[in-house]
Amino acid sequence: QIIPSKVGSLKATSGKKAITLSWKKNSSATRYLIYRKSDYNSSKYTKVKSISKNTTVKWQDTGLSADREYFYAIRTCTIVGSKKYYGNYKYITANTLAANGKTQKIVTADTPLYELPTLEGEAKITIPKNTSVAYYGKMYLSDKAFVYHVKYTVNKVTYDGYLDPETVFQP
After folding, report:
1. Could you write out the DSSP letters of every residue in 79-123?
2. Distance (Å, rounded) from C-alpha 92 to C-alpha 166?
3. Which residues contact 144 (CB under 8 A, 6 or more apart)?
4. Above 90 in pLDDT, residue 34?
């Protein structure tokens, strides 16, 4: 049995309504298969692209909603005769930019930052009022429920986490 190696060096680049995925060429692959889901709690990825040339190492997912995180899985496939052999999945989470293109936001009140998007457990840290955070977008947990994904840096330490959807940012 042939097991192709998984995709290497997977990266994502954000646009307002698009995300570009790029990766390192896999010489043992015949094709790449790309899957996406848009909700954190969903267990199902949907195939969005099959690339039949192993020299193609970039793909742009267009027509997406602005200000939203998406979840991708990409795998290699090697075809020998009539048999298909699949590599393991490589995962990445990427976001589209907010409609106004801003990647920094300022919280208007002391705000707890949670490690998990479910906002369960104790907050990692509280972000002080009038503090700027790196804004990555809304992470949808289901069709309507979402949290904000941000990074907050203080004293040269960066905290990656999630804010309650009731969080208010300066306009």
Report:
1. EETTEEEEPPPEEEEEEPPPTT---EEEBSS-EEEBSSTT--S--
2. 27
3. none
4. yes
Q: How many CA atoms lie within 13 A of 29 on its CB side?
A: 26
53: phi then psi, degrees, rounded to nearest 5: -120, 125
Residue 171 and residue 169: Cα distance in Å, rounded? 6
- Which structure tokens are listed for 152? 């907050």
Write the pLDDT tens digit of every residue in 98-114.
888 889 999 999 999 99
Determine the Cα–Cα distance for residues 59 and 38; give it in Å rounded to an integer: 17
Please report which confidence band the pLDDT of residue 38 belongs to, taking 50, 70 and 90 as the band edges. very high
Tokens (6 digits) for 128: 């002080």
The secondary structure of residue 6, as a DSSP letter, is P
Query: Rounded to whole angstroms, what are the CA distances from 115 to 40, 123, 142?
Result: 14, 7, 18
